[in-house]
Amino acid sequence: MIAMKQAMIRILSALTISLLAFSAATAAEQEIDRIIALVEEDVILKSELDEAINHLQRQVQARGESLPARSVVEEQMLERLIMNRLQVLRAEQTGIRVSDADIDQALNQVAANNNLTLSQLRMALESDGIEFEEFRDDMRQEMLSSRLRQRVVQSMEEITETEIDILLASDRLGGTEYRLSQIVINVPEAASPTEVNDARARADEVLEQLRGGMDFAAAAITYSQGPNALEGGDVGWRNLNAMPPMFADEIEGRSPGTVAGPIRTPAGYVILQVQDVRDHSEVIVREYRARHIMIEPTELISPEQARDRIHDIHARIRDGEEFDELARRYSTDETSANLGGMLNWFPSGRYGTGFQQVLEQLGPEEVSEPFQSQAGWHIVKFIDSREADRTADAMRAEAREMLHEQKAEEEIERYLRQMRNEAFVDVRL
User: Fold this and answer.
1) Which uninterrupted H or E stretch holds 92?
2) Cα separation values, 293 from 318, 363, 424, Å
3) Do the domains 284-388 and 174-281 match in fold?
4) CATH second-level architecture of 284-388?
5) CB count in 10 Å sphere of residue 366
6) Beta carbons within 8 Å of 408's beta carbon, 6+ residues apart
7) For the chain, N or C: smaller number of CB within 10 Å?
8) How far apart are CA 274 and CA 180, in angstroms?
9) Running DSSP on this structure, what letter comes out for residue 167?
10) Domain spanning 174-281: which CATH class is it, in words?
């Protein structure tokens, strides 16, 4: 009887230990996956935040850098996860969809950009501890967010020629370009003098730490409230003449590595670091004049017939018939046939690599052998080439792009800020 009681005690003890271990494991699992933010009708889990920070840690370490304190990174990363989640939710609510075929195409493009097959991409991800299905879902969410932002940009008014003329007349284009990083310390709208002074004090403190040797990227991750904080504050190349005067005055003439600020802006205080400097040079391009005859396969002309016809035309040119007359009669390129096949002053590469390679092998008035491209069969006659200054054209295109980017950034920032202000978000970190 005593032996039986002792056996029962051992069993009960073992069960108690097992239950305690199970409870501890369950508690640990709940700790890992606890809800740290409610975002509309969705949630963000602690495990999602940990995974995002670990991924960022690997990227930073690969660059030979280090992250600031985890509590700082958690705050920045959680805000990014919230904004990403809101964009996905808003995209789905407004009818934006991403199909499996869209994701497959994007994944194949990612693999191709890294000189990998899709299977090799899967293996590379899994070797880094990233589940392929999770990566696929992340791709879907990023595509939804991207399409939402594209819709915002598409709703903007188009850039007018008058706006381009005004920008060109302002001398804001050309000159020196600077690659900048920034640290933003926000000041609330209608801020009190105390709030303004507090923000300035924080900016001064950050500047002192930078002067004391703190890495700018680490400081941006730690302190910046700008949208590119987790990228070390990198804002890319900016033309000096296109910067706000308050920035241009501080940046002009500075060498890479130097820091400027704090600079007071309507939104708060900004500290800038010059990462690199380059000159905006003239745009000189090689242009060509040539004639060509194209025979394009159609429902009525088979590929073999197109080949035979171009060789027949080539033989007639060799026998002395005029190139331009044959182009008018036989070329299927409607844009040039009526002009005797004339392609008047076009830049290198305009008609594809194969066409350009043939053209560059010809001397003045020399006619090529028949050659094939994706469009059909061709004969080309080289006439002339020249060096052309296309700086004005390039500046006009740059002005259009600059105005579009500025408007797009402003519109997306306004849209996202409004979306964040209107959304229900409960942070529990």
Assistant:
1) helix 70-93
2) 14, 18, 64
3) yes
4) Roll (3.10)
5) 11
6) 153, 156
7) N
8) 5
9) H
10) alpha beta
Residue 129, phi-psi category: left (phi > 0), alpha (psi -120 to 50), beta (remainder): left
Confidence (pTM): 0.54
Domains of the chain, by residue range, sit at 35-154, 174-281, 284-388
Q: What is the pLDDT along the chain (429 residues), one digit of tens a residue?
A: 434 344 443 433 443 334 333 344 444 444 557 898 999 889 999 988 888 888 888 877 777 777 778 888 888 889 889 999 999 999 999 999 989 888 888 888 888 877 888 888 888 888 877 888 888 888 899 889 989 998 998 888 888 888 888 877 776 666 678 899 999 898 877 678 888 888 899 999 999 989 988 889 888 888 888 878 888 888 888 877 767 778 888 888 888 998 988 999 877 899 999 999 887 666 678 899 999 999 999 888 898 999 999 999 999 999 999 999 999 999 999 899 999 999 999 988 888 888 998 998 999 999 999 999 888 899 999 999 988 877 777 778 878 887 888 888 888 888 888 888 888 989 887
Task: Note the Cα 96 to chain centre separation in Å.
Answer: 20
Least Cα distance to 202 among 156, 157, 261, 251 occurs for 261
User: Residue 236 and residue 240: Cα distance in Å, rounded?
Assistant: 13
Residues in the chain: 429
List for the chain the helix, strand, coil content (%; round to 5). 55, 20, 25
370 cis-preceded (ω within 30 degrees of 0): no
3-class DSSP assignment, residue 342? strand
In what helix (H) or strand (E) does residue 378 lie, and over which residues does it extend?
Answer: strand 377-389
